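WARN no homologs supplied; continuing
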Amino acid sequence: MNNNVIVITGPTASGKTDFALKIAEYTDIEVISADSRQVYRYMDIGTAKPSAVELAGVKHHLIDILNPDEEFSAGRFAEVSISIINDIKNRGKIPVLVGGTGFYIKALFEGLSDIEDDESEARLKIREELNLEFEKFGKDYLYGILSADDPIAANKYSDKNPRRVIRALEYFRLTGNKFSDTFGMETGSGYNPQYYVLKPNREDLYNRINKRSEMMFEKGLIREVAQILEMGYPPMLNSLNTVGYKECISMIYGEIPLERAIELTKQNTRRYAKRQYTWLNQIKSYDVISNTTPGKIKSMIEKYSI
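OK structure emitted
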């Protein structure tokens, strides 16, 4: 049994799910969702989940497994995905990872402890700022910030060691993710990712994003968000701090009109796509998918089997 895993990724609205379903027409696959929001129940329209028909046609994993107030992390994603991939392979099927949450994909294949190797200008600037804060305010001040941003990491570093606290804060400020997500994921899973990237030109992608944003509102995104709030889930949940949902929440609370909510959803989705492009450009080796012809799909399956 080889250690290959097909990975279909790309920016939001690029057609990842449709491509994965096309592959399923040619071979027996199971899809593992690499989307940090599709794990949540009740969040369907705004996360562009596969339809009920699509889910019935091809088995999907890591969709609708948590309530909106439950936590999910990159480390947890990697841990669960390893078990799922092993199971799929043991049953003689092909695992296909599909999604655009780069942090999750990176956690699975590369691990999450490489911040010390990152010498980017942004990282060095953050490190300098934290060192200045340490000199000015002391270790208790920084530890207090860490306790608020990442309680699990703070508990682990209760000795308030400045180097460790600064490293954890540096990671949080650089990635926007908790350093505790990396615990136990210092190295990757050992799988060999075969990346296939849907990468439309930006003008076409932005047009697709705009149309999809409008369609989400037409399909009832506001009603979906209102129902989640009516179920008692507070609006400040991390799961709801998501493009589309946070704009709807602002509209529901009378902070912005509907037209502004739609426009902000388009704008913020385009910004998210830009960040995804940045991550995609860091992948060392991948095939850009410009067509979904039978020949292309068959060559992917053959490459997986080697």
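The longest strand covers residues 192-198.
OK
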